[in-house]
């Protein structure tokens, strides 16, 4: 028996647009039993997935990563979840020495880092009950690994922090039977990219590529087992794959094997 996402219950944060929307659509296409669409305004999810909401295949839930109480309330609704994907995040066009750098960094840390902590705290108790099949996915970024554009310095800093936390969560949650996956997209054609880094739109890939490659990662290493065995690091597009190749040796030695030096 092979592990698949068919009949699984999934929760996606930031589900009403961009990568989040593509993730919801892909999981439904691959037969997920139900997807909780976690958004700040549930009307946006109802408008984005009208038919699926009518059929109760998509369940909109209110969640704002800057408000931990909404995350806890959503977790109390989605108690049957098996796969949690923390996709929501914010980005600003802010350099390292701008007048508003500290303010923007605080905003991005609140959502991109503290939000991740709150999501994990709220949902780990339920994922732990899945008998080794619970999965926590964090949408990080190539900017988690390298700040290649100074105009998104605060975003890169927040995503580097979220990646560090993702690594720590992987270690802490493995004994609980929870699989942690860190996804590192490069330029993806979303409203967020258009707002902050429109100069990369010409080389950006569609959000559907991220969704397809994540599902492939969750299912492709399970030829003889009905439990998930996903890789920790997923590079879902051509640009990120190039960086991932360079990062691979370091990742294997430091992230995978736990060596700190040498």
From TrEMBL:
InterPro entries: Sc_DH/Rdtase_CS, SDR_fam. Keywords: NADP, Oxidoreductase. The keyword Oxidoreductase applies. It comes from the Eukaryota. The keyword Oxidoreductase applies. GO terms for molecular function: oxidoreductase activity. It holds the Pfam family adh_short. Belongs to the short-chain dehydrogenases/reductases (SDR) family. NCBIfam families: PRK08264.1-6. This is Short chain dehydrogenase. It comes from Nitzschia inconspicua.
